[in-house]
Design brief:
Shape: elongated
Number of strands: 0
Oligomer: single chain
Radius of gyration: 19 Å
Helix content: 55-70%
Order of helices and strands: HHH
Distance between the termini: 44 Å
Number of domains: 1
Length: about 60
């Protein structure tokens, strides 16, 4: 999946499993312009809240 993100559409369709012959970084620029940073912030927020509750409940239940 990571290698596929550096390919253009034609090279992905011709060889989806291989290494990219030409690395295209503009795919990340396009994604950033479309607002992927909002999804990144949301994922970090949900992960932090989940981590907080897991640590809270695991410490509480470890002393039962």
């Amino acid at each position: 999946m990571v290698f596929s993100s550096f390919k253009d559409n034609i090279s992905y369709l011709t060889d989806p499993w291989g290494m990219p012959k030409v690395w295209h970084f503009e795919n990340y620029l396009k994604a950033w312009d479309k607002g992927v940073q909002n999804f990144l912030v949301n994922s970090i927020f949900v992960s932090a809240i989940t981590l907080f509750f897991v640590l809270l409940f695991s410490t509480m239940f470890s002393f039962m």
